[in-house]
Automatic annotation (TrEMBL):
Species this protein is from: Actinacidiphila acididurans
Family: Belongs to the AHA1 family.
Gene3D superfamilies: 3.30.530.20
Family matches, as CDD domains: SRPBCC_CalC_Aha1-like
Domain named Activator of Hsp90 ATPase homologue 1/2-like C-terminal: residues: 12-115
Protein name, entry field: SRPBCC domain-containing protein
Length: 160
């Protein structure tokens, strides 16, 4: 079985990191360095089914169907992950813990099987690493002290 395991430390409190990774308005900002997925119907409530919608690519519709399996705010979010066309159901977990004045964020995506699963884990692992190394820190660094995007943030809404 193949898996993705990424650990990153951020110089921000767990509540701020939690908001960045669970606020439906903010998720597309840090996933933009990957496939740019936006959640539709997402809530941090166990049993919530939602989709991630990204730009389609050859052989992939860009839609992933998920269900929230476990939530312990602000330390754990666990959800299922399945391509809308079917296939194996895998599982994603975000674990946040205070660490040296900031947050240690652990991302796990497990349940990939066979040769196809091995390659999928490799591809998604590279994309997730970029999102958690470049995308998420950019969002966190553009938060003000109240945990909102600064009005002048380049990540915020585009103004005419």
């Amino acid at each position: 079985m193949s898996a993705i395991h990424i650990v990153r430390d951020y110089p921000h409190p767990p509540e701020k990191v939690w908001r960045a990774v669970t606020d439906p308005e903010l998720i597309p900002l840090w996933t933009a360095t990957g496939a740019g997925a936006r959640p539709e119907g997402f809530a941090t409530t166990v049993g919530t089914t939602f989709t991630f919608v990204a730009k389609p690519k050859p052989g992939w519709s860009g839609v992933v169907v998920c269900e929230v399996l476990e939530v312990r705010e602000p330390s754990l979010l666990r959800y299922s992950w399945q391509d809308e066309s079917g296939g194996e159901v895998t599982e994603v977990a975000y674990r946040l813990a205070p660490h040296r004045g900031g947050t240690r964020f652990t991302y796990d995506h497990t349940g990939f099987t066979g040769a196809g699963g091995y390659f999928m884990a490799k591809i998604l692992g590279a994309v997730r690493t970029k999102m958690l190394t470049k995308g998420l820190p950019a969002v966190l660094n553009d938060f003000d002290d109240q945990g909102n995007l600064r009005p002048d943030s380049p990540l915020g809404p585009k103004r005419p």
